[in-house]
Amino acid sequence: MNKLILFFLLLSGTVSAQSVTISGIAPSYVGKDIEVYEIEDYFSNTERLIASSTVDSDSTFSVKFSSPITRKVVVKGMNNKGFMYVQPNAKYNIFVPEKDKFDPYKPTGNSIEIGFLSLDSTDINYKILGFQRWMDRFIGLNFHLRSYDNVLFSERLETFKTNVEKAYAPDTSQFLKTYIRFSVAGLDNIEHGAARNRYEKHDFYIKPSKVAYQNDAYMAYIADFYQEMIPRLSSKANQEVYMGVLKSSPTEVMRALGNEYTLINVRIREMIMIKALADEYHSTDFPKTNILTILDSVANGSLFKANAVIAKNLRNRLTQLVPGAKAPDFVLAQQGLSTKTLYSFNGKYLYMHFIDPNNQQSIKELDLLKAVYDKYGDYIQFVTIYRDRDDIKEAPLEKVQQLPWDVYGIATGNSLWKNYRIEAFPHYVLIDATGNIVASPALGPTPNGQYETIDKTFFAIKKLIDHENREPDNPYDGIRGQ
């Protein structure tokens, strides 16, 4: 019994030692949430919420979460986001600023720079910031040389690499060493006299290094090094990849990719197969269904857990919002209106209208949109959604709220914004009566570059519904199941 108690005490101590605390001040976010997200993988850039805290009236907040490894996290407040690095058992005191007033509002989020109120010289952020300043200074002083004195640039680059290697050799942080190694590797992509060829780069940087899925510098280099991998293959290997995809066989595709020297590492080969097939998904060279089948196979059967996560996330990213796919569920809640989910709209087409009341183009379209509603409102449900923010102007908001259908103002943190990829306004999504995507983005009431509007689509829907609901000329002609 004593041994069991001791085991749990040791386990508790291990978990505690891996915890990270982020405290700080965020005066622009009083009453709002500060959220911390981990990056599940750097190919799909899928983020997952791991901690959140409401900012108190005195502008302070504090979050705590487990982090057994050193990694990059994203810090969000309202529609603003910045990043920092965290290491196990660390405590951080930060300042979360508001967005630059000269930076126009971006639906996908405005970038902010997280400030550190205190930072120990042994912390990963301190070390990375110091290295980045050093590298930025080198580039600023020497990059111009490659245009007229390539030899001198090559000499200075090699000297810089040597000095960096010596300076950080005593450091014990593997994350830092990998980060620096592959940041410097990126400089080798600058054309100069002593530049390594592709195979030399692979042998010098990639081959001897452990795959570092959670190191952003490593993954950025890998993504760049292996971009457009399938077109790089020999004609024979390319044809074998194609046949493997036609058979929906990840085994055959892996075998074909094995002919490429830079893919001798099986873990990297599978990871690049996932990325390469995802990159080809929207081309006309490979059947989309077969690509999805292969990604499913890897997501469910890969020997490498991190590769399975990448396959799952990329598959989700590819199939979200494509015609025929199930529309992401959502919850719309606002005082004075009934709470609605996607299921609430089943049985009838739904036209989702996303608007920024402060956006002039969004307001200009309202009269055209109301005319479309008057014409097709009996056949298609309309709903307007805007991001509830403190800086919305009263006059345009009042005009939006007077629309003759339901209008919801929802929080910035609502998953709907991310799931429906709302990046610009106005934005429209059309969903069918069974909850499947028809078009995202859908056409709007204003003609696009090809003079198309949503009217043609709505007319076709109206015609179809009228046909299905018509009274049969012959009571036994099969309409309505008779």
Layout of helices and strands, plus pairs?
Blueprint: H1 2-17, E1 19-25, E2 33-39, E3 47-54, E4 60-66, E5 71-77, E6 80-86, E7 91-95, E8 110-111, E9 115-118, H2 124-142, H3 145-148, H4 150-168, H5 174-187, H6 198-206, H7 216-225, H8 229-232, H9 235-246, H10 250-257, H11 266-280, H12 288-301, H13 305-319, E10 331-332, E11 340-341, E12 349-355, H14 360-364, H15 366-376, E13 380-387, H16 394-401, E14 406-410, H17 415-419, E15 427-431, E16 437-439, H18 455-469
Parallel strand pairs: 1-7, 6-8, 12-13, 13-14
Antiparallel strand pairs: 1-4, 2-3, 2-5, 5-6, 7-9, 10-11, 12-15, 15-16
How would you describe this structure in keywords?
Immunoglobulin-like; 5-stranded mixed beta sheet; alpha/beta; 482 residues; single chain; 42% helix
